Amino acid sequence: MDHKLRVLIRLDIDRASATLAVTGCLTESSVPALFPLIRRAGAMIKGPRVIVVLDQARHVDQAGLDLLRKFAADPTLSRWGHAISISAPAALPPCPALQSIPAEKIAV
Fold first, then answer.
1. Cα four-point dihedral sign 76, 61, 40, 14
2. Which residues 6+ apart lie within 8 Å of 80 measured at CB?
3. DSSP string, the chain
């Protein structure tokens, strides 16, 4: 399956915050493409908040989410004065490609 990262960036009209809405697949290999988008969104706002919303993502890997959380917690990012918050669903959406494969065919 092609795990494309799809992101919509919304800026408040007063540029107080930026929201990055992820609707594609957040995986360990795709999450590094999100980092420059977060930095760029932070550079475009005057306020302190950059929010990454994963609630509508097609699928989210735990490893990808862990990398995103590690990036958001990096103290060097605070030098530009923005807090990065992440909104993720409690139950991470699984990969649709794996859902269509019968369980007995998935190698463990």
1. negative
2. 42, 43
3. ------EEEEE-TTSSEEEEEE-SEE-TTTGGGHHHHHHHHHHH-SSSEEEEE-TT-SEE-HHHHHHHHHHHT-GGGGGGT-EEEEE--SSPPPPHHHHTS-GGGS--
Distance CA 51, CA 65 (A): 14
Q: Tell me the sheet residues that pair with 18.
A: 11, 50
pLDDT of amino acid 6? 92
* CB 20, CB 52: distance < 8 Å: yes
pTM reported for the whole predicted model: 0.82
CA 14 to centroid of chain Cα atoms: 23
* pLDDT digits 0-9 by tens, 84-103: 899 999 999 888 776 655 55
